[in-house]
Amino acid sequence: RTRNVVASTTRPGRWTMRPPSFNEDVLKAWRTYFQKVTKEDIDNYLKKYCGSEEQKEEMIGVYEKYKGDFGKIQECVIGFEDVDELKDALDTLIAEGSLEKTKKYEMTTSEKKMNSYKRKAEKEAKEAENVQQESSDLVAMIQSRQKARGASFLDALEAKYSTPSASKRARRGAK
């Protein structure tokens, strides 16, 4: 069990204990200013953001910052399902004249490079799925052990504090 230890402000070099409710109080105060972010909140934001002027401006800024390096651009831009969708959006901006096509962009969006980006994305998605599966297996294992431990604990208490059997009563009475 970990303990919340903080440096004392009254004496240098001395440690004082925080009350256990300290972290809960801090969390409550935090929640008064910032609400908890849910998956629904993220989905609603992405619905508003995708295709907006803000997204277009950010894409232009990232493109210019990395001089058209598609590998770096895809790491910074959000709201696209895959690399083809992002490339199409950038090509549209180039066709509109909002962006100037660079040598680096041409090199990093070749067919070979695009296939490489796709393979990398598939590999990362598979790894994320494995991690999620492992964590759900771990949660299930912990819960089953807690349930078993709780049952054995209750059995031990019952055995210890239940009324003694008739034979034990008879022996106590004989003494």
UniProtKB/TrEMBL annotation:
Residues 49-114 form the DNAJC9 HTH domain. Residues 114-129 have a biased composition (Basic and acidic residues). Residues 114-135 are annotated as: Disordered. It comes from the Eukaryota. One of its GO terms (molecular function) is heat shock protein binding. InterPro entries: HTH_DNAJC9, J_domain-containing_protein. GO terms for cellular component: cytoplasm; nucleus. This is DNAJC9 HTH domain-containing protein. It comes from Caenorhabditis japonica.
